[in-house]
Amino acid sequence: MRLSHFLGPQSSGLSGPSGYNLSNRNSGKFAEFRLLVVDVLYMAEKQSRISEHLRLFCVCIIITPILLCGCSHFNKGIQARSILKEANDFFAQGNYRASLAKYEQIIEKYPTANDTVLFEMGIIYAYPGNDQKDYRKSLECFHKLIKDYPESEYRRDSEMMIFNINNVIIKDEMIATQSAQIETLQQEVQNKQDLITTLQKKIEVLDQKIFVLRREPADKILVEKKDRRLTLLSGGEVLKTYKIALGGNPIGPKERQGDNKTPEGTYIIDSRNMDSRYHLSLHISYPNEKDKKRARELGVSPGGDIMIHGIKNGFSWVGSSHTEVDWTKGCIAVTDEEIEEIDRMAPNGTIIEIRP
User: Fold this and answer.
1) Is 52's pLDDT higher than 70?
2) Separation between Cα atoms, residue 155 and residue 278, nearest integer Å
3) pTM reported for the whole predicted model
């Protein structure tokens, strides 16, 4: 605002009725008044400028810490998000221990995010894929969240997780109890099976002793090709049974020489072959008249040299495993120990019936 506006117009030279110029009359006092007004207005303008600077200074004092705090909070937010991302990455990689360590780091440095972190930690502690899961620590996280942050958006989910984890704990305890019971029962069954096996071995030993002590020989040998079984009989009573191997082409009766079939029919043990390549050999009276007739009708040689014998000389170590395959050329094979028993119990003339 211009000072002249406050001072008014300059002297107009008006005169009173007497024609006396009024401006001249009071010109001295009026000049002093004008100077006073100028000084007052100048001081007012100066004071106004000082006030504006003072206000600006105060505003700066107030705003500066706010800006500083805001920047600090912004930086902390960025750092927290960075650590949170690392925690999530570790979780995705299956490194649950490292993920939990990162979440604990966030709790220590940025407590304002604790409800989120507590919820995430509770999830990790209860996560099924975590081999080191700890339901107790998981429950602690969810309970702390509910207690310390009652208004948290995670409260309801935490309550649901507590309910589910408690159910899982109950079921796990039931499963553990049942598993322990099953394991106990399995051990009892195994113990009984071991006892049965031991008793069976004792029975076999006793049977063998009884068999050795028996004086009467077998009067019949029964061979059942389908069951791969040879039985020594005396008066219709079973003396002993043996597992056998047959010719490489075991189905059907022997018809011709070289067909690798084991005969079917009734024969006798008619001799021993003392020069056999196998451990002991009892010769079977094949071919009988029926076999010879069939061969004549077919115009072929019926073959012969069908024996009950042991393992090939030098291979006795094979033992009972020889019966896993039919390996003879038509003969009936048993182990070396077994042929010794049969040789002792079945003299020449013993009937042998070979069934399909």
Assistant:
1) no
2) 86
3) 0.46
